[in-house]
């Protein structure tokens, strides 16, 4: 693991890429999750993310598991918390490996497992004035 963080500051793709610089890595796969202006047919005006106090430890555990399960040379995962606007970066994950196939598989596993297991909750605000919590217990 090169970079694992939960931050209330804007995320940087460059910081993630720089953390994974490795001449042995032939493949680097990057996923960037952004705040979109819609969800399930409703207009979204913004959202906020909240994290449980255990979220960073859980994120580290997810990263360790993905690294153990896949042939990667390194990985990084950062998630934003706080208020975000449309277009803001919400999550950035990346993996490097000797070959592209391993990196694609690991990156997919990393984002999917992060979304399923790390206790970070999204509160969406809709254009009609309603709101919704996503992923909360």
Automatic annotation (TrEMBL):
Heterotetramer of 2 MoaD subunits and 2 MoaE subunits. Also stable as homodimer. The enzyme changes between these two forms during catalysis. SUPFAM superfamilies: Molybdopterin synthase subunit MoaE. It catalyses: 2 [molybdopterin-synthase sulfur-carrier protein]-C-terminal-Gly-aminoethanethioate + cyclic pyranopterin phosphate + H2O = molybdopterin + 2 [molybdopterin-synthase sulfur-carrier protein]-C-terminal Gly-Gly + 2 H(+). GO terms for molecular function: molybdopterin synthase activity. Pathway: Cofactor biosynthesis; molybdopterin biosynthesis. Signal peptide: none annotated. The keyword Cell inner membrane does not apply. Pfam families: MoaE. Belongs to the MoaE family. Its EC number is 2.8.1.12. InterPro entries: MoaE_sf (IPR036563), Mopterin_biosynth_MoaE (IPR003448). The lineage of its organism: Bacteria, Bacillati, Actinomycetota, Actinomycetes, Propionibacteriales. Keywords: Molybdenum cofactor biosynthesis, Transferase. This is Molybdopterin synthase catalytic subunit 1. It is an enzyme of class 2 (transferase). One of its GO terms (biological process) is Mo-molybdopterin cofactor biosynthetic process. Converts molybdopterin precursor Z into molybdopterin. This requires the incorporation of two sulfur atoms into precursor Z to generate a dithiolene group. The sulfur is provided by MoaD.
């Amino acid at each position: 693991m090169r970079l694992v963080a939960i931050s209330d500051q804007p995320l940087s793709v460059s910081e993630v890429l720089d953390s994974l610089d490795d001449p042995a890595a032939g493949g680097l796969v990057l996923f960037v999750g952004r705040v979109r202006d819609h969800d399930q047919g409703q207009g979204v005006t913004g959202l906020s993310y909240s994290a449980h106090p255990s979220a960073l430890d859980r994120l580290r555990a997810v990263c360790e598991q993905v690294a153990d399960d896949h042939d990667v040379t390194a990985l990084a995962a950062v998630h934003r918390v706080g208020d975000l606007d449309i277009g803001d970066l919400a999550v950035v994950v990346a993996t490097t490996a000797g070959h592209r196939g391993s990196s694609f598989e690991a990156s997919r596993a990393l984002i999917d497992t992060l979304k399923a297991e790390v206790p970070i909750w999204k509160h969406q605000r809709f254009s009609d004035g309603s709101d919704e919590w996503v992923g909360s217990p």
